[in-house]
Each structure stands twice: as structure tokens, then as C-alpha cells.
Amino acid sequence: MVTETIILVVEDDASLQRSLVMTLKTAGYAPIGAGSLAEARRMRSHHRPQAILLDLGLPDGDGLDFIGTVRAEALTPIVVLTARDAEALKVRALDAGADDYVTKPFGLDELLARLRAALRHAVQAGGSAPSVRTGPLEIDLAARVVRREGREIELSPKEFEILALLAAQLGKVVRHQDLLKAVWGSERTDIQYLRVYVGQLRTKLGLADAPLLVSDPGVGYRLIAAPPV
């Protein structure tokens, strides 16, 4: 099963929503749009997005309330998009649980960079789970520590980010493009570059006798869900 990074775009300006959806699709994400809080709640419940782009001024309520609802249940990254740039409102949004605050008008490249950062921070903070165990491996997402049979393994920051992204989608294929985009942004697009890092990661994890990090040729990589040992 190939996983897609679903982004919920909550924006009542139909033209801007279409532009954001098109930009996200071009960048390799799977965007879904909502024009109201009620629709956003339905879409979030049905699709379980990995991040949310949220306008605050919506026809049926204040987006700040939606931030509170999301934060009460999950650590899904939220990037606020609004024309209101008052400092007090920014403070309220961030205190409510938003991860970032972007004032309209904004550049699409900057928005994508902020979205990538929010997604990375969610992985680094252990948004999916504080710790993932599979076979001999224990991956502590919050502490950024990896152990094999209790012994700590030293990884580079990039190697850990790759492993954390796979651990967050344990048992599912994560596409090459999604890994490249999440770890390097637009800096790297060559799949061979990713293969080198995955090769180094396999060696450090000592998985020759326990092939847990597997390749789906032409698609991506998957961390196998195996009983802890």
C-alpha cells in the first residue's frame, strides 16, 4: 500500500482554495479542500490528514475553534493562513496550538517550505507515536534515539529523519518522492541519492539477518511491522 501525504486546505475563498490545491498536487501532496468549519470537520474525520492549512475567517465560525478541536485529539501540524496580521491574533493562534502563521498575500514557495518544516517537526516530536517497536528495533521518535536489542545506534540527522518517516507509517510503503521532499525539500530529487542514505541506514541498523527495511521497486520503502524481539 502506497501512502500519500494528505493535506486539508480549509479556505472559503474558492479561487485561493483551487490555487492552493493545484500547488500542493504539483508538489506531490494529496490535498483536499473545505470551505467551512463544518466541512473541515467532516473531511478531517473521514480522511485523517497529515497536515492542515487553515484560514481563520470562515463563514460558519472562527478557525481558532477548529485549532482547539484538533489539538484536543491529535498533534496534526496546522499552518494558519489569514489576511489578519495583528500580533495579538498571531499569539492567540499559536497559543491555541497552531504550528505556524502565514499572512496573506504569501508566496507559494514559502508556504510549501513552511509546510515541509511543520511536517518534519511533527515527526521529530513523535506526533504519530512516542516510540515504535518492530523486530529488534526500538525507535524513540520524541528523543530521536534508535536502539537494537537495547543497544543505542548512532545515526546522522538525515538517516534518523528517513527512519522516523518510515516508522510513522509502519507497515506501509512511503514513496521515494515523499521521503526526498520531507527530508531535503526541493534540494534533492534524485532517487539514487536516497538509495545511498537507505543503504547506510540498513548497514548501521544491522538488518542483514532481519530484513525490516524493504524496497518496493520503483515506488518507495517500507519498514516492516514485526513482533518485538
TrEMBL record:
Domain of life: Bacteria
DNA-binding span(s): 129-225
Matching InterPro entries: CheY-like_superfamily, OmpR/PhoB-type_DNA-bd, Sig_transdc_resp-reg_receiver, WalR-like, WH-like_DNA-bd_sf
GO molecular function: phosphorelay response regulator activity; transcription cis-regulatory region binding
Keyword DNA-binding among record annotations: yes
Domain annotation OmpR/PhoB-type: ranges: 129-225
A cellular component term, taken from the record's GO annotations: cytosol
Alphabetized UniProt keyword annotations: DNA-binding, Phosphoprotein
Domain Response regulatory: 6-119
Annotated protein name in UniProt: DNA-binding response regulator
Residue numbers of 4-aspartylphosphate PTMs: 55
GO biological process: regulation of DNA-templated transcription
Protein source organism: Candidatus Viadribacter manganicus
